[in-house]
Amino acid sequence: MMNEWRAAPVEPGGDQPDPATWEPVEVPGRPAEFAGSDAVAYRSTFEDPRADSDEHAMVVLEGVYAHARVWLNGAFLGEHDAYFEPLRLRLDGALEGENELVVECRRPDDRFGGSYETSEVPDELAVPGIWWKAEIETYGDRHVLDLAARPRVDDDGARFAVRASVLAETDIDDRVTFSVKPEGSRRGRGMMDRAKVEASAGERTTVEYTIDIRDPALWWPRGLGEQNRYVIRAKLGDDERTLTTGLRSITYDDSEGLRVNDTPMPARGVGVLAAEPEDVERAAELNANLVRAHAHVPSPAVYEAADDAGVLVWQDLPLTGPGPFDIERGRDLVGRLVSAYEHHPGLAAISVHDDPVALNKGPLGPGLLDRLRLRWRRFRMEYDHDPAETVAAEIPEDLVTVPVVGPPGIDPNASALYPGWKYGEAADVDRLLDRNPELGSIVGEYGAGSLGVENPSDVAGFDQSVHDYRVSGGLDDSQAYQRSVIETVTERLRLRETDVLVAAALRDLANAGMGVLARDGTPKQARDALADAFEPVQAMLADPSPGVESDVVVCNDLPTDVSDRLTWDVDGEAGETDVSVEAGTHETVTTLEIPADAETISLSLSDGSVSNTYRL
């Protein structure tokens, strides 16, 4: 409905922007030519979209980063300050035959730009703009503006708490019809009911209704069951809106771990930055069942991909790094974030403050002096949890709450562990967690970085000094080191039965980074290593060291018992044994004598379809 868009960098604030020149751009999108700009103005023209006098119109913008002001034909329409929440503005009063829409987008002036306001995300991915959607919507005298639903499954049954926002252009005394039915061809019982709505002309109101579901078909994470979903419709006269959602329950505590639909679920996850829908499938191909949206809010398309794939989403508030923040602003944003995304069954957890302190600025090695330095820095660190806890209190009780993600030393709710990268060696994760077992329940990030290309020039957000301390060679050596750290730490965490473990990053955003995939999605060496270590059923050596006797442990994250045959090869010497492991448990199934001169050990299950190789 809108013609082509043009844009220009502008100074934020003041009257409607009027730059001297406008450059053609794609909207929605992030025009890279304006990377680094504090504010960018966007302009489009369109004809009056109303077909007759009974119609009305509004502009709908989604992903407006980060704060925005909007004008139509020189008249100020409104502003917006949460990019993950749709911006809807009525146009009628300012519409003409030919119309000019101007949207000024600017960087945030508070702490809630999250990772987009750090060096972790390249400037071209953080351009102020309209990232996800831009359209004109027409409607009659009554309009269902928005539809939200909160799924609940508990001892009282299964239900959706539904909210429909209604805009009245004329007085309304009517009923909204709510209906729900299983998505697509899935069988199941649908229902329909009506709720009263009253509103005066020009008023917006909210209708709330609870839909009870008999014999519910639950949504399950991948590996645990089907991703059953429901379509909810709210209809008022000829106007209607739908959404797709699912029923599930999610809980976490230290004694029972993470449970979905009251079923234990060890979570194996990866962090995503500036996430794209394709990243969800990439994570699933790694055998991950969770992604952590690190200090940013992905588009609805990413959440839809997660719902489709059966991948849980651990959602961060867009807040990262040291420093105070506005508590009331944080509380407001948490409420709006939940309202926007709570209908997605994949939404599992929300955290508030990421990396609030820096444990060490430079790398620390494995020697005694460096270990003492690390211990002293942990002892000296301080962090006030109260602001994050206050904001976290706004998170509904049916979501997992993780107020603070950070390094050892500040009692984080989820730990950021970097042995083998920021300090010590990868195997030091055992010593660290032996002394501080509380750090091993939820590990929100771990791993090491590597180059994505030989001699990279663009390394935004990559700690080159740490890398060069660890790696002396080029691309192959860099990726081999990352692979070794990720293999070791992932296995040690799984053997310790960590409830939730999240490798730092799925994909680089520059030509080097913490991702196991390069910028374009090309696998690094660590990609297959992580996929192997994340296999739901996997055999692991308790101590992969030459010259020792090591237990062989089979980890079974599935909800069913596993009977299989384990085979092994130690430098050409083979053996095998039958194994039986109960659902959701780890079992020591045999021991192996590892020769002092051993070079490789391979363990295989299911005729080699699941294997694990140690390079000694």
Automatic annotation (TrEMBL):
Q: What is its EC number?
A: 3.2.1.25, 3.2.1.-
Q: Which GO terms describe its molecular function?
A: beta-mannosidase activity
Q: Which domain of life is it from?
A: Archaea
- Class of this enzyme: hydrolase
Q: What is this protein called?
A: Beta-mannosidase protein
- UniProt region (Disordered), positions on chain: 1-29
A Pfam family the protein falls into = Glyco_hydro_2_N2
- The segment(s) forming the Glycoside hydrolase family 2 immunoglobulin-like beta-sandwich domain are 143-243
Q: Which residues form the Beta-mannosidase-like galactose-binding domain?
A: 36-108
Biological process terms from the Gene Ontology for this record are: carbohydrate metabolic process
Sorted UniProt keywords? Glycosidase, Hydrolase
Q: Which InterPro entries match?
A: Beta-gal/glucu_dom_sf, Beta-mannosidase-like_N2, Galactose-bd-like_sf, GH, GH2_Domain-Containing, Ig-like_fold, Ig-like_GH2
Question: What sections of the sequence does the record tag as coiled-coil?
Answer: none
